[in-house]
Design brief:
- By secondary structure, the protein is α/β, with parallel strands linked by helices.
- Helix content is 18%, strand content 17%.
- The chain has 5 helices and 15 strands.
């Protein structure tokens, strides 16, 4: 270390390092700016390339930026520094068209110690000369970077909500066209077609048209005891019809009138619906459709309830008499001249019921009633003989 530095330390004045550091920083900043401009012009990071002449342009010596003066510490030192400046200037002016980039050597102040006697005047730190504003080379207009079209953020494809597989609508089974409900065939009115008087007889006796059997019917309607009215009906293809001249004919019943199952020998005609036949009479032959028997001596109708012939015909010639009581048919021939059996208590025969109930000729000697038979004038019985036919299943209704 020289003696002048020692003297400076002794005098209390130190070297101005902050100002030197500021000048060096400004220089480095200028070099960085020029290098950046050179790089933007496509010449690489060359700080002094901005002063080179471009091809085709007039040669122009580049002007170097003014190097800031460092503070002079000693006249002797300043002389050496001044001498180096022209040399640097000449070197710069004599540079070829493309001068090589020469960085100025870093000037370090000589380590000369100032005279101990008097310190040189301290100059204020000179600011680096302001460089003329260098216009940056006109770059081609830089189009703004075209950003790729910003697609909307692609959301993950939202799958539609999975619905359960829709089955094809099941059509209801096509029913055959519903026809209007067919009413069940209305059965014919059983009373339709019946003569009003016959319908009245059946209803009064508590019967239905379906209860009628065969196709021939005689009705004995009791009026004033023992009187009655007689009617005759037959069934044809068009229905039941009255027989001409055989309706509303007066007759007789039992002395006590009519009644249901009167019992044995009560002088009452039984009510009900009974078959007719066979027929009996005085003549050897009668024109009739019923089985016929001529009444002769020895003919009886058994009334003994203990006999096997109770309520049956019996002839003495059978030689099988087991009864003690019977009606002698031949002895009463005047009323049995025309006689038709009413099939009461015959199928089966009950000994608790009456017997010998006939439809015969009225007794001409009296207007009284009978023991239980139905009677009418001879002409009416003769007409019945001619009309009744066993094949037509004739019946009598007594009520």
């Amino acid at each position: 270390m020289s003696g002048s530095r020692k003297e400076n330390r002794k005098s209390g004045k130190s070297f101005p390092w902050p100002a030197a550091a500021a000048a060096a920083g400004a220089l480095l900043l200028a070099l960085l700016v020029m290098g950046s401009v050179s790089a933007l012009q496509g010449r690489g990071f060359r700080p002094f390339a901005v002063f080179q002449k471009e091809p085709g342009a007039e040669s122009q010596a580049p002007t170097l930026p003014d190097i800031p003066d460092f503070p002079t510490l000693d006249p002797r030192e300043s002389t050496g520094a001044a001498e180096s400046t022209p040399a640097a200037t000449e070197a710069t002016s004599e540079a070829p068209t493309e001068p090589s980039v020469t960085e100025p050597p870093e000037t370090q102040p000589p380590e000369t110690e100032p005279p101990a006697t008097e310190a040189p005047p301290t100059e204020p730190p000179t600011e680096p000369p302001t460089e003329p504003p260098t216009e940056p080379p006109t770059e081609p207009p830089t189009e703004p970077p075209t950003e790729p079209p910003t697609e909307p953020p692609t959301e993950p494809p939202t799958e539609p909500p999975t619905e359960p597989p829709t089955e094809p609508p099941t059509e209801p089974p096509t029913e055959p066209p519903t026809e209007p409900p067919t009413e069940p065939p209305t059965e014919p009115d059983p009373w339709a077609g019946l003569p009003s008087e016959l319908a009245a007889h059946l209803k009064a006796a508590g019967m239905q048209p379906s209860d009628l059997k065969g196709s021939q019917l005689v009705v004995a309607q009791a009026t004033t005891t023992p009187d009655c009215l007689l009617y005759a009906y037959e069934k044809t293809d068009s229905g039941w019809v009255p027989v001409d001249g055989m309706c509303s004919v007066p007759g007789k019943t039992g002395k006590k009138g009519v009644g249901p199952h009167p019992g044995w020998w009560h002088w009452t005609t039984p009510t009900g619906y009974f078959g007719l036949g066979p027929a009996m009479g005085a003549a050897a032959y009668e024109e009739t459709g019923l089985p016929y028997h001529q009444i002769v001596p020895g003919d009886y109708w058994v009334e003994d309830r203990s006999s096997k012939y109770y309520n049956k015909f019996y002839q003495d010639s059978w030689n099988d008499k087991d009864w003690n009581g019977a009606e002698d048919l031949y002895a009463t021939l005047k009323v049995y001249y025309y006689c038709i059996v009413i099939q009461f208590n015959m199928d089966p025969i009950s000994t608790e019921e009456d017997c010998a109930i006939f439809f015969h000729v009225k007794n001409p000697d009296t207007d009284e009633g009978t023991g239980g038979c139905v009677t009418a004038e001879e002409w009416y019985l003769k007409a019945l003989f001619r009309w009744l036919d066993e094949s037509r299943d004739p019946h009598i209704l007594i009520y």
